[in-house]
Specification:
transport; elongated; about 280 residues; mainly alpha
C-alpha cells in the first residue's frame, strides 16, 4: 500500500516580520535625524572661515552701527538704554538669521550632489529628514549666537535683568522657525545665487522691520503695522526682554511687548515653517 503524500502547505510567513535584531521604525527615524544633524555640525567646524566669520561679522556690525547712532538715539521711558544696548538683541537675531541662511543653503548643495536623493530613498521618513536638517542648522545658529552673547556685559546686560529660560526658549524657537523657512524656500530653488536673492527679498526685510534697528514707537502708521504683524519682531522683543527686562521691551516695542507672547507666537511660527518644509520635501519631482 502506497504511503499517502501529504499536501499540507507550510504556514504563511507574515510580510511585516522583521529579522531578529533589526531596528524598529522609531529607531530608523531617530538614526536619520541624528546622522543628518551631526553631519551639518561637523561640516561647519571643518570650515574655519565660517567659524571666524560667524563671530567677526556681527561684532563689527554691532560696533560700527551702534557707534554711529549712539549720539542721536533716545527712548523715553528707557533710562540708560543707548543705541548699542538697543541694537544688541537685534544683532543676536541677525546672527540666527544669517546662520539659518548659510546653513540651509546646504540643502541645494546636497540635492545637486545627489546626497539628499540617497537619504530620501532610505528608510527614514521625509519628516525625519527635515527634522535632521533643521536641528543641525539650528544647532549651528545657536552656537554662533551663544558666542556673540559672550559680549553681553559690554552691552550693559546684568545678572539682575537676565532671564535665561526666556532667552534660551526664544533663541531655540527662533532658530527652528528661521531654519524651517529657509528649508521650505531652498527646496524650490535650483541655484545658490537664486536662493541668496530670495533670502534678500524675504528674510532680510523681515529682520530690518522687526524692531532690530529702530524702535516700533515713532514709526509711520503703515510701517508700524508692518512691524506689528512681522513674526520676527517677537524674536527681537523676546531677546530684549530676556536681557534687559520687560520695562525696556515695553519702552521701544508695541503695546503687547513684555506681555509674554513671545514664546507662544514663536512656537507657532516654528511649527508652521517646519511643517511647510516637510510638505516641500514631500513634493514629488
Amino acid at each position: 500500500m502506497n504511503a499517502e503524500v501529504s499536501t499540507a502547505q507550510p504556514p504563511p510567513v507574515a510580510e511585516d516580520a522583521r529579522a531578529p535584531g533589526a531596528p524598529g521604525t522609531l529607531a530608523l527615524q531617530w538614526a536619520t535625524v541624528r546622522v543628518l544633524m551631526a553631519r551639518d555640525v561637523v561640516r561647519f567646524f571643518r570650515q574655519p572661515s565660517r567659524v571666524v566669520g560667524a563671530l567677526a561679522q556681527p561684532i563689527l556690525f554691532w560696533f560700527v552701527i551702534g557707534s554711529g547712532f549712539a549720539g542721536s538715539f533716545r527712548v523715553e521711558g528707557a533710562r540708560g538704554l543707548g543705541y548699542q544696548q538697543f541694537f544688541f538683541p537685534g544683532v543676536v537675531t541677525m546672527v540666527l538669521l544669517f546662520s539659518a541662511i548659510f546653513a540651509t543653503i546646504t540643502v541645494i548643495e546636497d540635492r545637486r550632489e545627489g546626497f539628499l536623493q540617497a537619504v530620501l530613498a532610505g528608510p527614514g521618513s521625509r519628516l525625519a529628514v527635515v527634522l535632521g536638517k533643521a536641528l543641525g542648522s539650528s544647532a549651528i545658529a545657536l552656537m554662533q549666537a551663544s558666542l556673540f552673547l559672550l559680549l553681553a556685559p559690554l552691552a550693559g546686560v546684568s545678572a539682575a535683568t537676565l532671564n535665561l529660560p526666556l532667552l534660551v526658549s526664544v533663541m531655540v524657537l527662533s532658530a527652528l522657525a528661521l531654519t524651517g523657512m529657509g528649508m521650505s524656500l531652498a527646496w524650490w530653488v535650483r541655484s545658490s545665487a537664486g536662493y541668496h536673492a530670495v533670502m534678500s527679498i524675504v528674510m532680510l526685510p523681515m529682520w530690518v522691520l522687526s524692531g532690530a534697528m529702530f524702535p516700533l514707537k515713532g514709526a509711520d502708521t503703515w510701517l508700524s503695522w508692518v512691524m506689528v504683524l512681522n513674526p520676527m519682531r517677537f524674536s527681537v522683543e523676546g531677546v530684549r526682554r530676556a536681557l534687559y527686562g520687560a520695562e525696556a521691551s515695553v519702552a521701544v516695542g508695541s503695546p503687547l511687548s513684555g506681555a509674554g507672547w513671545e514664546v507662544p507666537v514663536l512656537l507657532a511660527f516654528a511649527a508652521v515653517f517646519v511643517g511647510l518644509a516637510a510638505v516641500s520635501v514631500s513634493r514629488r519631482e
